[in-house]
Specification:
16 strands, 519 residues, RNA-binding
Length: 519
RNA sequence: GUCGAGGUAGCUCAGUCGGUUAGAGCGAGGGAUUCAUAACCCCUAGGUCGGCGGUUCAACUCCGCCCCUCGGCACCA
């Protein structure tokens, strides 16, 4: 089931608030989006990947105040910490958007607002709500404890002010139809069902502005109304198009949004409603194409405990990578966290997986293969003399792998790739080339050459399939096998028999050194 | 309350359309082997498949009820 390629793909992560340092949960989201982008590029598709930071929230103002810095400076430093994840996690995003600091964003979101307004979907209404001065936010009655603010134990005051409202209710039927038809796909399906239930419950209009005073002057102004700023969600969701220069409807916007085959948002389960309901409604109103797919992941606990905002167990991705390596962290996040479900980032298990799977199974396979080729066939990949069991396996694997990615089940995709590694290790033992090498008859020599070829080719395939997850490792495997750094076009790359006979192998350093377990 | 997702070997999890002896990895025990990072490979581990009842020749897999965990239920990653 090969999907037609090349096609155009736009892949994004959500943009996180910057009031706290990045934690391992967001690192997982970044890695997932990166894996999807790398997979599409591997297939020859035209891909654009975006991440960035959501900076206009009141929370950021408060956090800056606590830190004793002005908001813009604080936000700038925090955003840098997120962008700095690119190196340690080996991310390949093409662009990074900052919602408070880049004109393209403010301009684009203003245009988006105006487009909705022109459609008659934005109007000013009186908004009444219970407001806690301490928290600087409104509370729904249900969120209060005995009518008091859960944080400050004070009675919130009834505040009435004019806000702009978006006519979400108008789009109820359309949103429902989108979800039901699958034109807007949500994976895994469980999340789709939740949203469906939510929409069927009826959609009320949405407040999309705050008084400038209440927002402490921070945020993007409502067009033609200096007294109001946009509610951060309206501005944040817009990032997906403003980053592409929606403001001027530039080339990137046309290419990756309007004319794209897939507009994919990778998000955490907590914000699916914003992406499955509010965002499509805004786009519908403004007359822009909608996202095609929402890829929803679960939350991570750390060593079994919830990630506390300031509880101290919020693992720093840079730190964990410094101790265990980029590919092991990416590998653990991709294979050992079940797609769509909550998972546990267990450091001891990360170490176990790195040793048992990456070092012992994959790393060792490469080493034993390359060593035998160096020793038995003078360092050149030999020509096979007959077909082994792998050609059929290769077809099956490609099929399973593409199917897994079609549903964004990246953990299954890794498992599928791994079946090659397992098969090759077993094959090595069954054929025992080290025994064949001690015999001197023609049959043994033919069998030896065929087997070594098969092992090299299996590794080549493994490197192809693992490249999205383990970019550095895949490159190392290619290097040691004597292959060019750039992989072949997808069809050729995934077909059995791609290792050139005579390629000169290099016995390099072990792929994964075994580290001692972290304290 | 309601809706959803889970509850399978010590741990983390797989189990397609119901079908014969319920699987994998880790951990544990044993064996084999030497190409390789003491790695690879093979065997074993005897788990009431949350509980009770039902449908069926046959249910982990379908239906009902119940128990436990987590999450959504209007503006909160």
């Amino acid at each position: 089931m090969t999907t037609p390629s090349p096609s155009r793909h736009y892949v994004t992560t959500a943009i996180p608030y910057v009031n706290a340092r990045p934690h391992i949960g967001f690192a997982m989201e970044l890695v997932m989006a990166d894996v999807i982008a790398r997979y599409r590029r591997l297939r020859g598709d035209d891909v654009r990947a975006l991440t960035g930071t959501d900076e206009n929230a009141l929370k950021n103002v408060q956090a800056a105040e606590q830190a004793g810095i002005d908001t813009a400076t604080f936000v700038q430093a925090q955003a840098a910490a997120f962008e700095a994840l690119r190196e340690p996690l080996n991310l390949s995003f093409d662009d990074f958007i900052r919602t408070s600091a880049q004109r393209r964003h403010a301009r684009g979101v203003t245009k988006l607002w105006q487009a909705c307004a022109a459609r008659g979907d934005i109007d000013k209404r009186a908004y009444r709500g219970l407001y806690c001065v301490g928290c600087e936010q409104f509370y729904a009655p249900a969120d209060l404890v005995d009518g008091r603010c859960p944080e400050h134990d004070s009675e919130p005051e009834l505040v009435e002010e004019d806000n702009y409202f978006f006519r979400l209710s108008r789009y109820e039927a359309q949103i429902l139809a989108l979800l039901e038809s699958g034109r807007l796909r949500i994976v895994p399906e469980g999340y789709r069902n939740e949203i469906l239930a939510f929409v069927r419950g009826g959609l009320a209009d949405l407040s999309i502005s705050r008084s400038r005073a209440r927002a402490r002057g921070w945020g993007i102004g409502v067009p033609d109304d200096p007294s109001q700023v946009m509610y951060v969600w309206f501005d944040a969701l817009g990032n997906y198009v403003t980053a592409l220069d929606y403001a001027d409807e530039g080339d990137d916007y046309v290419r990756y949004w309007v004319d794209s085959d897939a507009r994919v948002h990778v998000i955490g389960k907590g914000i699916t409603r914003f992406h499955a309901v509010y965002w499509p409604a805004i786009l519908l109103s403004a007359g822009l194409p909608l996202p095609t797919t929402l890829v929803v992941h679960g939350y991570l606990t750390v060593d079994g405990r919830k990630i506390g905002k300031s509880l101290g167990n919020a693992i720093d991705p840079e730190d964990i990578v410094a101790r265990h390596g980029t590919d092991p962290v990416r590998y653990f996040l991709c294979r050992h966290v079940r797609f769509g479900r909550d998972g546990d980032f267990h450091e001891a298990r990360l170490v176990t997986a790195t040793h048992a799977e990456l070092a012992d199974q994959l790393g060792n396979l490469l080493r034993r293969t390359v060593s035998m080729i160096a020793r038995y066939t003078d360092g050149g990949v030999p020509a096979p003399t007959d077909d082994g069991p792998f050609a059929a396996l290769a077809v099956q694997i490609r099929d399973d792998y593409e199917r897994a990615f079609a549903d964004y089940r990246i953990d299954d995709a890794v498992r599928t790739a791994w079946t090659i590694v397992d098969a090759a290790n077993r094959h090595a033992v069954e054929r025992a080339p080290w025994k064949l090498a001690k015999r001197d008859d023609p049959a043994a020599r033919a069998a030896l050459r065929t087997t070594l070829y098969e092992l090299a080719e299996a590794l080549r395939l493994a490197a192809v399939y693992l490249a999205p997850f383990l970019p550095y490792t895949a490159a190392q495997i290619r290097h040691q096998l004597g292959l060019s750094p750039a992989p072949e076009p997808w069809d050729a790359a995934t077909r059995w028999g791609g290792v050139p006979v005579g390629a000169t192998v290099t016995v390099g350093e072990p792929l994964f050194a075994k580290t001692s377990p972290a304290a």
